[in-house]
């Protein structure tokens, strides 16, 4: 294990990697319930999607750890599942079987791009200034997700957003946030995981005594559920290649590509997971893993898989090798039978970890040359639009396009690489398809 994952070379240990894997899993595990909730609205059986979600998360995260050896979990992506349900199935009127076929074919396209090294070249073509901005933007995005999960930030018709009412649940979140911050400041090992556990335990009496903010954390409806393999190989490969479905395939391709690329680049920059040339390490293998995840998702009955930004929780907990992803991936497997147990970890328990991880991920922002406006403005747009639009894809699309335009009008065409022109083409296509 030491030599395979190169633990000493990465200044980590088995204990640290295990804690990091658990932390990433706890921050990511919500997808086991949320993904079936979204896709069931497309007419798919909830239990079948839950089983598919666990299978995709388990196998893909395991592949990321053992093959790509990066501490990043892979699971069905939020946003991608919404596009699957609301745009493809309910919007365009295609059946969910055809939509699964579109997921499969988009995975095949990903795989070809990865094997032919096209995606790696695209990663290397992203300007450094935009990489720093993407990392910071993802950090702000993660913090926003945490604050929204805790209902600290809520919708407000008068001001768009505002602070939520001071409820027992919000007070519990604030206590968990403060404790987790103290643990991190004092360099306590596993501080993020301890914060999650503390907030979970602190939330228990809320559901029992008040009941208005959280459901009781432990119910007696049963802790076990049998896996449902009814969606296995239910995709419609032939009809998903019809001309009317091609835009759906391309939309999956572009959205998943930008989400995975930006997440991978952002995490690599924020955690210094770089090779000797300053590029994200094992980039080709990682992107190939992402492609396999999407292909697998179509086969087992889920929306596309992608690298998870919440992996930053485990990375900040010390995860630096593929062992983190292996541990996180293995933790998904028992939930083929134990999915009801996830109700024991409420959103407010992982919210403090998400908020604080944002503080670590914005570190690269100091590397941006804010006095060079043709660099600073695209970087700024990428950074703020990721959280403001609630979309990693939109942030990086406008970052890339504004970078290209400003370099052209300032006579710096040489700074626009051939790979960046390809990215711009994809970006423009994404704007029209999404």
From TrEMBL:
Pfam families: Xan_ur_permease. Its main location: membrane. The chain crosses the membrane at residues 12-33, 45-66, 98-118, 130-154, 160-185, 192-211, 231-254, 323-342, 348-366, 378-401, 416-433. InterPro entries: Azg-like (IPR045018), Azg-like_bact_archaea (IPR026033), NCS2 (IPR006043). It is found in: Cell membrane. It comes from the Bacteria. Keywords: Cell membrane, Membrane, Transmembrane, Transmembrane helix, Transport. GO terms for molecular function: purine nucleobase transmembrane transporter activity. It is a multi-pass membrane protein. GO terms for cellular component: plasma membrane. Belongs to the nucleobase:cation symporter-2 (NCS2) (TC 2.A.40) family. Azg-like subfamily. This is Putative MFS transporter, AGZA family, xanthine/uracil permease. It comes from Pontibacter akesuensis. The lineage of its organism: Bacteria, Pseudomonadati, Bacteroidota, Cytophagia, Cytophagales.
